[in-house]
Amino acid sequence: MKAKVYVTPKKSIADPQGNAIGRALNKIGYDKVEDVRIGKLIEIELGQITKEEAEVQLKEMCEKLLANTVIEQYSFEIE
Amino acid sequence: MKAKVYVTPKKSIADPQGNAIGRALNKIGYDKVEDVRIGKLIEIELGQITKEEAEVQLKEMCEKLLANTVIEQYSFEIE
């Protein structure tokens, strides 16, 4: 079973890395770019496990290790 | 218009960051985790632009700046 976890900075948190990429894109001609935010995409390959178990475990993994929930939000999808 | 760009290491490229997170997850009890790969999720807010233009521009942005196509692959979706 494959899962994709998305970890992004919360809206209220400044994202200097995203801002830098946004400015760089503007500079090389992409003037329609208004805002850029950078997050992580974590692809996890899970062994024999039910979808229900996977959901519970992924939530725990995000809370414990994958996301810093003070400044980041997460979501995931299971394929 | 909002776009999400996903940049991940190519399958043939080692991903030590992903391996470290995989081992850490195994260590704290998630023994079903078999493989982890880490990529970037780039959320781009685009101004007034058609979907067709956005597609062309996003492909260019990925090739020029967002992805290192020697070692990374990319995909994107426009909302």
TrEMBL record, chains A, B:
Cell compartments where the protein resides: Cytoplasm
Under Enzyme Commission nomenclature, its number is 6.3.5.3
**Similarity field:** Belongs to the PurS family.
This one is known as Phosphoribosylformylglycinamidine synthase subunit PurS
Q: What HAMAP family does the record tag this protein with?
A: PurS
One cellular component term from this protein's GO annotations in UniProt: cytoplasm
GO molecular function terms noted in the UniProt entry = ATP binding; phosphoribosylformylglycinamidine synthase activity
Origin species, per record, is Alkaliphilus peptidifermentans DSM 18978
Q: What does this protein do?
A: Part of the phosphoribosylformylglycinamidine synthase complex involved in the purines biosynthetic pathway. Catalyzes the ATP-dependent conversion of formylglycinamide ribonucleotide (FGAR) and glutamine to yield formylglycinamidine ribonucleotide (FGAM) and glutamate. The FGAM synthase complex is composed of three subunits. PurQ produces an ammonia molecule by converting glutamine to glutamate. PurL transfers the ammonia molecule to FGAR to form FGAM in an ATP-dependent manner.
What GO terms describe the biological role, i.e. biological process, of this protein? 'de novo' IMP biosynthetic process
**Pfam families under this entry?**
PurS
Please name the NCBIfam families in this protein's record: phosphoribosylformylglycinamidine synthase subunit PurS, PRK05974.1
List the keywords (alphabetical). ATP-binding, Cytoplasm, Ligase, Nucleotide-binding, Purine biosynthesis
Q: What superkingdom does the record give?
A: Bacteria
Biochemical pathway: Purine metabolism; IMP biosynthesis via de novo pathway; 5-amino-1-(5-phospho-D-ribosyl)imidazole from N(2)-formyl-N(1)-(5-phospho-D-ribosyl)glycinamide: step 1/2
Q: How does it assemble?
A: Part of the FGAM synthase complex composed of 1 PurL, 1 PurQ and 2 PurS subunits.
Q: What reaction gets catalysed by this protein? A: N(2)-formyl-N(1)-(5-phospho-beta-D-ribosyl)glycinamide + L-glutamine + ATP + H2O = 2-formamido-N(1)-(5-O-phospho-beta-D-ribosyl)acetamidine + L-glutamate + ADP + phosphate + H(+)
Keyword presence, ATP-binding: yes
Q: Main subcellular localization, coarse class?
A: cytoplasm
Keyword ATP-binding appears in the UniProt entry:
yes
